[in-house]
Write a structure and sequence with these properties.
Number of helices: 14
Strand content: 5-15%
Shape: globular
Strand order of the largest sheet: 2-9-8-7-6-3-4-5
Helix content: 40-55%
Length: about 400
């Protein structure tokens, strides 16, 4: 009997490539490698004791609820706690305005499914968040990059593209952006909001790093600006302030779009883990998250400063890099004639790693660029990693 061939994969699954960051993380998983590649929170700073206590309380006091199916919208106590936290940070929010997601990445997937038809135009920062580029490619969107400079997205360039491309949405990470660590100033945020008001496109404002500020004052959310309040979706995450293993995030959106995302989520996973939501809600009620965040900020500021202090000796003469006021990343541009992707192979032989910048570009990449994360290792390890990197660049 002849066996028939199986049908092929869907075109979107066959054509979208893997995450370069995830591939590099697999390549550098050896414990001896000092990696500046992954955007990984420092595991020694997780409040394991506080989270353990929160899980113990919910499994002792409300096991019948914590272990049961739940509503798609999310645990009411958790949504209340998130709403209170956002309101306290200057963005008035009610619990009913939120959808709890399985990490903020799921929020992006829900939005892409609810909003995008194949061929719709999505504008993104260039360079921009790699997993967002994957998400929009899987949705069949036409991704168009918006030029950036050291201050982030350039409003004049955005205005021109909005006129010529007629996008359905703009996706951006305006605060401590991934991969560059840049922050969009208030004037540029207002310009973005006014363009959305005038031309009628959605804004997806992703804010996973906003509470990791080490210098300066917070910029306003685009979602809080009157011009764009009715057309901006805010995505948030507990991955950087509690633990990424919780896979908890949230989506704040106007009612009709939020309802559409709820329906999409019903088809994806029914609801986010009940016990994890209950534990997070209990943690936010019983623990001192602000105190915990203060300890994280102190440690990450010290690590950022250690990386910045060591870069002049580690990188080739003529390299440039920024000084992020928060977040987890900084952005490097090597001198002309250097290829960050090719040099990575030499770096890995020296047991050190970074992420080449090329995969973060939606169009023509700048092969001289690379992203470095400063959160995972302490200052001494950062210093040793930079010494290895200097040897690798000298060899390369």
């Amino acid at each position: 009997m002849t066996r028939a061939e199986l049908p092929p994969l869907a075109a979107r699954a066959a054509t979208v490539g893997p995450s370069a960051v995830r591939e590099i993380l697999a390549l550098t998983a050896r414990p001896e490698v000092i990696s500046f590649a992954g955007g990984l929170p420092a595991p020694e700073l997780f409040d394991a004791a506080g989270l353990r206590a929160a899980y113990h309380r919910v499994l002792t006091e409300i096991p019948e609820r914590a272990l049961q199916y739940s509503t798609t919208e999310g645990d009411p106590e958790l949504r209340t706690a998130i709403a209170e936290r956002l309101t306290g940070r200057g963005l008035a929010t009610g619990p009913d305005g939120l959808l709890v997601t399985t990490g903020s990445q799921q929020g992006l997937t829900l939005l892409a499914t609810a909003l995008l038809e194949p061929g719709d135009v999505v504008l993104v920062e260039d360079p921009g968040y790699l997993a967002a580029l994957q998400c929009f490619a899987l949705a069949g969107a036409r991704v168009v990059p918006v030029p950036t400079d050291d201050g982030g997205l350039i409003p004049d360039a955005l205005a021109e593209l909005v006129t010529t491309e007629r996008p359905k949405l703009l996706y951006l990470v305006p605060t401590f952006q991934n991969p560059t660590g840049r922050t969009l100033a208030t004037a540029r945020r207002r310009a973005v909001a006014e363009l959305a008001e005038r031309h009628g496109f959605w804004i997806v404002e992703d804010d996973p790093y906003g509470e990791l500020r080490y210098d300066g004052e917070a910029e306003p959310w685009i979602a809080g600006l009157p011009a764009a309040a009715d057309r901006t979706v805010l995505l948030g995450s507990f991955s950087k302030i509690l633990a990424p293993g919780l896979r908890l995030g949230f989506l704040r959106a106007p009612a009709a779009l939020r309802r559409a995302c709820v329906i999409v989520k019903q088809s994806v996973d029914l609801h986010t883990s009940t016990v994890d939501q209950a534990a997070a809600a209990r943690y936010l009620r019983d623990a001192d998250l602000d105190g915990h965040l203060g300890r994280i900020r102190t440690a990450y500021r010290e690590r950022r400063d250690a990386l910045l202090a060591g870069l002049p000796k580690a990188l080739p003469a003529g390299s440039r890099w920024n000084h992020p006021a928060g977040g987890m990343f900084l952005w490097v541009r090597l001198p002309d004639g250097h290829d960050a992707t090719a040099l990575l192979r030499t770096a890995v032989r020296h047991d050190v790693a970074y992420v080449p910048g090329a995969p973060f570009y939606a169009a023509e990449p700048d092969g001289r660029t690379l992203r470095m994360s400063f959160t995972t290792h302490g200052p001494e390890e950062i210093g040793e990693g930079l010494r290895r990197l200097a040897d690798a660049f000298a060899e390369g």
